[in-house]
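<goal> How does this chain fold?
<body> The protein record starts here
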Amino acid sequence: MKNIIKISLMATCVGLGLTSCQSDLTSLNDDPKHPSILPSENLLATAMYQSSYYMDNPSVNFNNYRFFTQQWAETQYPDETQYNLVTRNQPRNHFNRMYVYSINNIKQAKANLKNEVETDENVRTNKLATLEIEEIFIWENLVDTYGDVPYSEAFRPNEILTPKYDDAKTIYLDLIKRIDAATAMIKPAANGYADLVYSGNMNKWKKFANSIKLRLGMNLADVDPALAQSTVESAIAGGVISSDDEAYKFKYDGNTFSNPVFDNLVASNRNDFIPSELTIKTMSTLADPRMEVWFTKVNGVYKGGIFGELNDPYTNFSQLSSYFRSATTASNLLSYAEVAFLKAEAAARGYSAGGTAADLYKEAVVESMRENGIAKAIAEAYVIANPLNITNWKQSIGTQAWIAMFNKGFASWNFTRRLDYPVLVNPPKSNLSSVPYRMPYSDQEYVLNGDNVKAAAAKIGGDKATTKLFWDKF
């Protein structure tokens, strides 16, 4: 992994196509030790690292998903838990990481792949399918973070310098079609890239693609029920992630690259982040055994910080345990537990999901417990004590998924926005009129692509964090 990513770091200038890199690229042409055209595998490695690291990053300078779901609180600098998204330019930073450092490298990899020597065309086809699935994964993050975004006209600098913003649902529909096309391309008997997640196992890439499709389908449930059902049932029938071994987990070696939570809690020596009072109260009420794994105690009890407040000293509260502080912990960005909760929700909505809502709910909770080191007998006892309430399944599934997705901020945010549980209360000192439902657009877009971003803002009802996405109907 180290060698692949070390080489792939050279992809930055090539992948970005930035004017500031031109002198460096010219010198590369004269240096036989540095290629002027990087292999598509290295560009893919860069894109996977950048997207995984920054989707999972808890830094106050980036996505802030863990604060949007009110699972983490702060003790010293509460701006982020008061939903100040201006001072640190989080919208710009996440936008650039996904577009410039991630998708752009995938686009360049696709172009380079066409000219690479490959003796087995089935392998080339699988490589193209891998690039396509990875790109779709990043697009889904962008759409579910911002809403309408530049899509159909993006990455065409020779033709269009100011791309229009496409309708988010239209992008969803296209992503679903692209997933179907990509999975149909896959040649299971052949390998793909020696990639950093699935090592070229195309059966796993196919299950990952269908799991993205499942997530897209579930998000459509309240805005287009018929399409949601057909999409979800098609994804499940095609095969989704069904074990931890199939989860999309980007692994870190702890040397060249480390887990982003480690980087922010340990390497940066940031003694500020603590579990929120809502997290502690919710889990305590349910007698959740994961607390013993996740948090420390203060004077023999768990104590969470008040969200959005300037809390007492860090040492007065429960802290994130050593479980979250390993440099080598993988970023688990689409987990088996998440897929099981999505299937449970699908069954509760009346879709054909491969089991009853109660059974799939149990599977999801037990898997989350297993993932966090809790014995099966304890997990099953927990489900008996906290069964699915089928008459209020949104509360049961929403609350349990929110707990299970602790430290998986983006996945958790999708559940809380779609199911509205647990109920998130806007903090008294909030900079917003409600909790965030989306990330505002990058401020740089107003400088570089002003007309189009203004048109997009007007279309969605205002470029505000409180403007709901098209699928967030309730």
Notes: The first helix runs from residue 2 to 8. Residues 1-30 have pLDDT under 50 and may be disordered.
